[in-house]
């Protein structure tokens, strides 16, 4: 499912116009992004938790030459699904 399809589904289920559903989805995405930038977690009970994880600097290998290279430390986003979501997917 892509964003336009998700907007249509939200509009149908919440009895909103497509524009209102698009604004709501954009607001949700911006809010989650802002929270993760501030190293906060976003927990949606029954759905899951978005959190920021740090990756330490490490030595990797150039796949073409086999030479070792330094990979800089970075942050990434992780999602930990909640029990209800896991049960829905597996049941």
UniProtKB/TrEMBL annotation:
GO terms for MF: DNA binding; identical protein binding; structural constituent of chromatin
Gene3D superfamilies: IHF-like DNA-binding proteins
Keywords: Coiled coil, DNA condensation, DNA-binding
Coiled coil: 11-38
GO CC annotation, single: cytosol
Cross-referenced InterPro entries: Hist_DNA-bd, Histone-like_DNA-bd_CS, IHF-like_DNA-bd_dom_sf
GO aspect biological process, one term: chromosome condensation
SMART domains per UniProt: BHL
Sequence similarity: Belongs to the bacterial histone-like protein family.
Chain's role: Histone-like DNA-binding protein which is capable of wrapping DNA to stabilize it, and thus to prevent its denaturation under extreme environmental conditions.
This protein's name: Transcriptional regulator HU subunit alpha
């Amino acid at each position: 499912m892509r964003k336009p399809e998700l907007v249509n589904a939200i509009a149908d289920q919440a009895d909103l116009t497509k524009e209102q559903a698009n604004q709501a989805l954009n607001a949700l995405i911006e809010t989650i992004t802002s929270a993760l930038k501030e190293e906060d977690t976003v927990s949606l009970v029954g759905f899951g938790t978005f959190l920021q994880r740090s990756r330490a600097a490490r030595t990797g290998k150039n796949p073409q030459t086999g030479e070792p290279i330094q990979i800089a430390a970075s942050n990434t986003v992780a999602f930990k699904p909640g029990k209800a979501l896991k049960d829905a997917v597996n049941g």
